[in-house]
Design brief:
Blueprint: E1 3-11, H1 16-28, E2 30-36, H2 43-49, E3 57-60, E4 63-66, H3 68-77, H4 89-114, H5 124-144, H6 158-176, H7 187-196, H8 200-217
Parallel strand pairs: 1-2
Antiparallel strand pairs: 1-3, 3-4
Helix pairs in contact: 1-3, 1-6, 1-8, 4-5, 4-6, 6-8
Length: about 220
């Protein structure tokens, strides 16, 4: 049993945004009930508290917190478990920068590419454009990520919570579009990804993502 919180989080095992929050929850050893929205029984209650209807959503008593970045910050602000922020302001800024690059410049083209997974309906022009944007954003992460074990400050931070699911999907999506070795030209990111997966919280979420991805691909 983890640290009691009385919280629950509306979750999807394959969502990179929910995965980000699960890493924070596991790293902090928090007892948070995860409600799987794959079960339609929860849909009505979710709609009442989440007009954006986006996963994840954290419920802490009468407080409802949407958006993964906000949830992770909220969990840290609660002071439960280990802190997932560095102590140094410069390192905090680097943590936030890495998260922002991943959110704005990696997840956007990756989301477009997920809509093109099926070769039968693939728009090759769109794919080429989004792969170019994705590749450019990954070189920015290559520049800013620390390492080799953690993204910033030599410990698990909110930057790692963001990067782990992003890099999982980056590695998975590349071969679908002919990139057999997605990390070519990104040695720091590849070394970081190979190291961070050994962290218990990161490794647990990567296993969950892998299982959920296999279920999705199996139809």
């Amino acid at each position: 049993m983890g640290i009691p919180t009385g919280m629950k989080m509306y979750n999807s095992q394959l969502s990179p945004f929910a995965a980000r929050c699960r890493i924070a929850i596991y790293a902090k050893d928090l007892d948070v009930e995860l409600i799987d929205l794959a079960d339609p029984a929860h849909d009505e209650a979710f709609g009442r508290i989440a007009p954006m209807r986006k996963i994840p959503v954290l419920v802490d008593g009468g407080t409802v917190v949407p958006e993964s970045e906000t949830i992770c910050e909220y969990l840290d602000d609660k002071g439960l478990g280990v802190s997932l922020r560095p102590d140094d302001p410069a390192a905090i800024a680097r943590m936030r920068l890495i998260s922002r690059i991943a959110d704005l410049y990696v997840m956007d083209p990756m989301g477009e590419l997920f809509g093109q997974i099926n070769p039968a309906g693939r728009d090759q022009q769109l794919v080429a454009r989004e792969i170019a944007e994705l590749s450019k954003a990954m070189t920015w992460l290559e520049h800013y990520v620390g390492g080799p074990d953690f993204a910033v400050a030599g410990k698990l931070t909110l930057a790692d919570c963001e990067l782990v699911p992003v890099l999982f999907f980056f590695r998975e999506i590349g071969p679908m579009f002919g990139q057999a070795q997605p990390f070519v030209g990104l040695p720091r990111l590849e070394a970081y990804y190979n190291a961070i997966r050994r962290h218990p919280a990161a490794g647990k979420v990567l296993a969950e993502l892998d299982e959920a991805m296999k279920r999705m691909m199996a139809g």
